[in-house]
Amino acid sequence: MTDEKRHAPATLRNRQPLLEALRPHLPNTGLLLEIASGSGEHAVFLAENLPGLVWQPSDRDADALSSIRAWMGDAALPNIQPPLLLDAGDPRTWPDLRPDAILCVNMIHIAPWSATLGLFAGAASLLRPGAPLCLYGPYKRAGQHTAESNAAFDADLRARDPAWGVRDLEAVAEVAVGHGFAPPVIVEMPANNLTVIFRKAQ
Ligand SMILES: C[S@@+](CC[C@H](N)C(=O)[O-])C[C@H]1O[C@@H](n2cnc3c(N)ncnc32)[C@H](O)[C@@H]1O
After folding, report:
1. CATH code of residue 81
2. Residue of the nearest CA to atom 25 in ligand 1?
3. What is the DSSP string of the chain?
4. Residue of the nearest CA to atom 22 in ligand 1?
5. Do 63 and 6 form a contact (C-beta atoms < 8 A)?
6. Distance in Å, CA 35 to ligand 1 centroid
7. pLDDT band at 1 (very low <50, low <70, confident <90, very high)
8. What span, in angstroms and rounded, lies between the C-alpha atoms of 174 and 182?
9. For the segment 109-154, what is each residue's pLDDT rounded down to a tens digit?
10. Probe ligand 1: pick from 41, 103, 110, 116, max atoms within 8 Å of CB?
11. Ligand 1 within 6 A of CB of 39
């Protein structure tokens, strides 16, 4: 089982700052749906540190689901559900759940824009008024990269797949508002990343 575990080194650096950035914006109890959980390392760490929440990981990739199950198995936490196959860009794969919060870390720049559109459409249909959709990752602001390292990362992403790339925060916020979310709360994070909290309008 353990050989299916993937390890994303960045998770060890960003998980504690991510926890502190999210904590004030998440409910103390309820169901959190995580989109694009990847290795599952954030799911295990955050579920352990936010024990009032029930964590529902997901990803569109079957190998990621195996890794999440493996990390979950080792952690043996009572508040993580088995991962779901969920492609943010495919409305047929969105579950019939009523989460109290949704989290999506480091996906929207490593997926086509359609995944961002699907993320907001799906989140808007599941979340109740006032509930948060929290994103984490690098962003451009007013069309500009905020650091040379983000510009280089963006060029690398686009070389790997022209449909990928660091997104404009304003473009993402425009999609969000179009789906009934309020303008975001923005938390500056280490390594030129942002945590961005969109709340479904009341
Ligand atoms: C860079 S990894 C981030 C994983 C994890 N959130 C983290 O920060 O370590 C990107 C993840 O997004 C997932 N992904 C890409 N497109 C997706 C989509 N349309 N719907 C759901 N997950 C997607 C990939 O399978 C991958 O696990």
Report:
1. 3.40.50.150
2. 61
3. -GGG----HHHHHHHHHHHHHHGGGS-SSEEEEEE--TTSHHHHHHHHH-TTEEEE-EES-HHHHHHHHHHHHHH--TTBPPPEE--TT-GGGS-S---SEEEEES-TTSS-HHHHHHHHHHHHHHSPTT-EEEEEE-EEBTTB-SSHHHHHHHHHHHHH-TT--PEEHHHHHHHHHHTTBPPPEEEEEGGGEEEEEEEB--
4. 36
5. yes
6. 7
7. very low
8. 10
9. 999 999 999 999 999 999 999 999 999 999 999 999 999 999 999 9
10. 110
11. yes
Rounded CA gap, 115 and 94, in Å? Answer: 12
Rounded to an integer, the average pLDDT of 25-31 is 98
Containing domain of residue 86, as a range?
2-199
Residue 85 β-bridge partners: 59
If we measure between CA atoms, which residue out of 142, 146, 95 comes closest to residue 123?
95
Q: Of ligand 1's atoms, which has the minimum distance to the CA of residue 61? A: 25
At residue 142, what is the residue type? A
What is the tally of structural domains in the chain?
1
Identity (one letter) of the amino acid at 196?
V
Would you say the CB of residue 61 lies under 6 angstroms from ligand 1?
yes
